[in-house]
Amino acid sequence: MSNEYNPFIFENPELWTNYDQSGEIKKKLPLIFNHIPADVASIIDVGCGNGEITNQFPEKYLVIGVDNSKEALKYIKKGKIHCSADNIPVEDLSYDMAFSSELLEHLPEKIVIKTISEFRRIAKKYIFISVPYKEQLEYYQIKCSSCIKKFHAYGHLNSFTAQSLHKLIGNDFRIVWTANEGKIVKEYNPLLLKLRHGLAKVYFAPSEYTVCPYCQNKSFPKHKGNIFSKLINGLNMIIPKKRKKYWLFVLFERI
After folding, report:
1. Given the DSSP bridges, would you call strands 62-67 and 79-82 parallel, antiparallel or unpaired?
2. Which of 54, 126, 136, 232 has the greatest number of beta carbons closer than 10 A?
3. 81 Rama class: left (phi>0) / alpha (psi -120 to 50) / beta
4. pLDDT per position in the chain (255 positions), as tens?
């Protein structure tokens, strides 16, 4: 599966016109806003996208959004900076809190490390991160109909727990709050998933925004199963499996 950042997804203007179609991001807002510490006055939102969260921060906060997509930044109604998350042109310790939602899962390992370093450099007091929780990356594999290479449907490259995030951030920050919330997802049986890919030759369904990170192909045939994939899916439905809530929230405080 691709281990490279897929920028072609995020420069599609159509993606950002109704980004939160499922309403999942809106459901996150109360949880985020209710756990911002009382002594926070300024927030830098790194990987802000089209501002589904950024634009909704209460007016009492000084907020600036950071993103590498010019298309996404067109929707930001607060301050904004167009740059990569691993090289943000602001002063050290210049914001009370560095915030990030739905960013780190998209970045290659080296860029994740540099981005976390930027969070640490910029955040005067807190780092607040939201990412998918222990995502089963293999389930979302798509096989390109043009170059035959495999990649994640949404460009995700990493799976996280609170502990793995803490290890990245370091021991000079401590976890003050963490939660798993959001829709319930079930893990596909790993052995059956291998059979679904290998025997049935069926992968995750492409969407209208799917772009191959290798050849930039945007044309994918209609997704359909076969007798093998239907049998495998049926077996997966009756086998006990792990259930979890989709989102992971972790608030870190500088020690």
Report:
1. parallel
2. 54
3. beta
4. 556 678 788 888 888 988 888 889 999 999 999 999 999 999 999 999 999 999 999 999 999 999 999 999 999 999 999 999 999 999 999 999 999 999 999 999 999 999 999 999 999 999 999 999 999 999 999 999 999 999 999 999 999 999 999 999 999 999 999 999 999 999 999 999 999 999 999 999 998 889 999 999 999 988 889 999 999 999 999 998 889 999 999 999 999
